């Protein structure tokens, strides 16, 4: 009995152990996810994370989704549209950056992510890499092409300067221009460091180009600084505005060893702002000295040309001879030609007179010609009167003969001799008696045009 009970108990399903009861309330998945979200956000209110951007995607909504990774871990990152526009660095794949923001979670996927508020490049190497890639991109578009460069005016009347109003750069440029060649200088004050600086610089460049009275040349300048301080002059908006400018631009950003992308797009690069002023205007004293030296050289050249011209003139005069002698020769030649012309003219007149006499001998008086023609007319008239009768008699005789022949050969003369003409009903002559048949109506014409109708039987 006991064995059977143990056996049954052993075969029966094992009962679950009673649960340990606690006072913790039950939570839904959403409640737990939101609690974790609050806990993480409270613990990591603001963090700075350095890493490499990966899988960067700008959504059509304007939000950016990406990963920040190093050799051991990956963190999802998101940056909302309003913050993306304010970032000082353009997010790109593989860029080494330092992101500032807060850690939060995405409950729908149970993962945590960094909500980025600001972004900066991590170290100078990352900056240089980004600038090199940007330089290659802009160069491929032709913004740095040498054929786009414009020549600087030799003596500008108006110079535009884009720089800070409070810095020493503008005063250095202004003083250098006044010392070398005073002219009108217009300042477009901008900030040269900080957020939004690149927009101010680009707007200043475009603003000078939109003026009714544009400057002849423009200087974009800034004092020295670190690579990060000069980043505004590496931005695309500044480089494109420089390349599009119709006014020649001299870039003078930083020291001689500093190079920014605006230097490649500008028409000339100056090592310093003072050097830009020296490029923009010539040196007045040097110009005055050059003008004076050119004047002296010009006077010497003119004097030398006059001496050489006088020498050539004297040589030609000596070769030419005295004008009176030349005139005597020409006068003698003229007299000779006059005499020759007179003799030729006399011979010509003599020939014409002889010809006139010959022609006059052959000319008869009109009265003689009229009398001769009248006698000729009378003679021919008498001959014509004698021949006229003879000419008319013979045709008359021929006509009479032909009339008699016509009468003797006509059918009328045949009718007069006792014959008759037989015609059919159509009044056509019948020349063959075989054509006459019984019943035909016949018309028989006799002498004196008498016509008798008969019917053949």
Write the layout of secondary structure elements.
Layout: H1 2-11, H2 29-43, E1 47-58, E2 64-69, E3 74-79, H3 81-84, E4 96-106, E5 111-121, H4 123-140, E6 158-163, H5 168-180, E7 184-189, H6 197-209, E8 217-222, H7 236-244, E9 249-253, H8 261-265, E10 268-269, H9 273-280, H10 284-320, H11 323-361, H12 366-409, H13 411-416, E11 421-423, E12 441-445, E13 451-455
Parallel strand pairs: 3-5, 6-7, 6-8, 8-9, 9-10
Antiparallel strand pairs: 1-2, 1-4, 2-3, 4-5, 11-12, 12-13
Helix pairs in contact: 5-9, 6-7
Short summary of the structure?
The protein has 457 residues and is of the alpha/beta class. The protein has 13 helices and 13 strands. Residues 1-16 have low confidence and may be disordered.
């Amino acid at each position: 009995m006991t064995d059977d009970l143990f056996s049954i108990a052993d075969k029966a399903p094992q009962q679950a152990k009673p649960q340990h009861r606690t006072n913790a309330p039950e939570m839904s998945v959403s409640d737990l996810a939101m609690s974790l979200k609050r806990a993480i956000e409270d613990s990591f209110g603001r963090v700075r994370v350095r890493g490499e951007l990966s899988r960067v995607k700008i959504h059509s909504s304007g939000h950016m989704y990406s990963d920040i990774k190093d050799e051991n871990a990956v963190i999802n990152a998101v940056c909302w549209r309003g913050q993306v526009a304010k970032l000082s660095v353009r997010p790109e794949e593989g860029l080494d950056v330092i992101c500032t923001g807060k850690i939060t979670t995405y409950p729908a996927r149970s993962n945590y992510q960094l909500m980025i508020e600001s972004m900066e490049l991590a170290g100078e190497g990352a900056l240089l890499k980004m600038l090199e890639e940007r330089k290659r991109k802009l160069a491929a578009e032709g913004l740095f092409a040498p054929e786009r460069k414009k020549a600087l005016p030799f003596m500008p009347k108006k110079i535009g300067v884009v720089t800070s109003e409070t810095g020493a750069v503008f005063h250095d440029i202004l003083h250098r221009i006044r010392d070398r060649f005073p002219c009108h200088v217009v300042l477009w004050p901008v900030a040269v460091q900080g957020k939004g600086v690149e927009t101010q610089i680009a707007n200043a460049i475009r603003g000078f180009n939109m003026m009714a009275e544009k400057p002849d040349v423009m200087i974009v300048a800034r004092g020295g600084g670190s690579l990060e301080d000069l980043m505004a002059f590496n931005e695309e908006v500044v480089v494109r505005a420089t390349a599009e400018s119709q006014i020649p631009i001299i870039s003078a950003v930083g020291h001689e060893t500093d190079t920014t992308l605006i230097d490649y797009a500008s028409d000339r690069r100056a090592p310093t702002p003072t050097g830009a002023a020296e490029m923009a205007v010539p040196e007045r004293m040097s110009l005055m000295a050059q003008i004076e030296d050119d004047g002296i050289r010009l006077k010497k050249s003119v004097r030398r040309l006059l001496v050489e011209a006088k020498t050539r003139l004297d040589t030609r005069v000596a070769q030419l001879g005295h004008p009176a002698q030349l005139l005597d020769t020409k006068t003698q030649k003229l007299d000779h030609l006059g005499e020759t012309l007179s003799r030729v003219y006399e011979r010509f007149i003599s020939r014409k007179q002889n010809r006139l006499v010959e022609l006059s001998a052959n000319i008869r008086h009109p009265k003689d010609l009229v009398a001769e023609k009248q006698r000729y007319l009378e003679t021919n008239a008498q001959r014509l009167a004698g021949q006229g009768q003879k000419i008319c008699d013979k045709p008359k005789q021929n006509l009479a003969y032909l009339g008699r022949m016509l009468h003797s050969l006509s059918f009328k003369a045949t009718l007069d001799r006792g014959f008759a003409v037989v015609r059919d009903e159509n009044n056509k002559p019948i020349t063959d008696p075989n054509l006459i048949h019984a019943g035909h109506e016949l018309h028989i014409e006799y002498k004196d045009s008498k016509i008798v109708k008969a019917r053949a039987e």
